[in-house]
Amino acid sequence: MTQEFTITKKVAKQGSNNIIILPKILQSRIKPNSLVEIKIRLLEDN
């Protein structure tokens, strides 16, 4: 079964890496070894 979610997040910084943190509601649904598709659309460039 395919489920689709749309989230809008600011990219955070962790050391030298840029990261996107998943909301808790998605963390409970996405388990280790799950296959997910991530599409990134840049809405604004600072």
Helix and strand layout, with pairings?
Blueprint: E1 12-14, E2 17-19, H1 24-27
Antiparallel strand pairs: 1-2
Q: Unreliable runs, pLDDT <50, ≥5 residues?
A: none
How would you classify the helix and strand content by structural class?
A: mainly beta
**What order do the helices and strands follow?**
EEH
**Radius of gyration, CA atoms, in whole angstroms:** 12 Å
Widest β-sheet, arrangement of strands: 1-2
Count of DSSP-assigned helices: 1
Number of strands: 2
Largest sheet: 2 strands, antiparallel
Portion in beta strands: 5-15%
Distance between the termini: 37 Å
- The chain-level mean pLDDT equals 88
Helical content class: under 10%
Taken from the alpha-carbon principal axes, the silhouette is globular
Short description:
This protein is mostly beta strands and 46 residues long. It is built from one helix and two strands; from the N terminus they run ββα. The chain has one helix at 24-27, and strands spanning 12-14, 17-19.
Description:
The chain has 46 residues and is mostly beta strands. Helix content is 9%, strand content 13%. It contains 1 helix and 2 strands; from the N terminus they run E-E-H. A two-stranded antiparallel ribbon has the order 1-2. Strand 1 (12-14) and strand 2 (17-19) form a beta hairpin. The radius of gyration is 12 Å and the shape is globular.
